[in-house]
Write a structure and sequence with these properties.
By secondary structure, the chain is an alpha+beta fold. It is built from four helices and six strands, in the order αβαβαββββα.
């Protein structure tokens, strides 16, 4: 398997992801586009020492952007929402 730090790119912190965290113990991450659910689960368990119950992944479309008269697109990216066992938390979301 690959290094878990190459699979999990960064936490995805938004208002909606904070509501998921508080309501149902789910955390969102930006992950490598080639990573599957099994690799994401393995990487989260390895990096944060928690028990993962469920992984949901989705490919997010890149937004169209303009710079003056030139048009382009941001790249597509993959988001993973991970549900943890009751009582487990991830410190980077808690501020510790």
């Amino acid at each position: 398997m690959r290094d878990p730090r190459t699979i999990i790119r960064r936490p995805y912190i938004t208002e909606k992801s904070n509501n998921l965290k508080e309501a149902s113990n789910q955390y969102a991450f930006v992950v490598d586009r080639r990573a599957n659910k099994v690799e994401v689960k393995w990487a989260v368990e390895k990096l944060f020492r928690v028990n993962v119950l469920d992984v949901k992944t989705m490919v997010m479309k890149g937004k169209p952007k303009r710079m003056g008269r030139f048009e382009g697109r941001r790249p597509n990216w993959k988001k993973a929402v991970v549900k943890l066992k009751e009582g487990d938390t991830i410190g980077i979301f808690e501020g510790t």
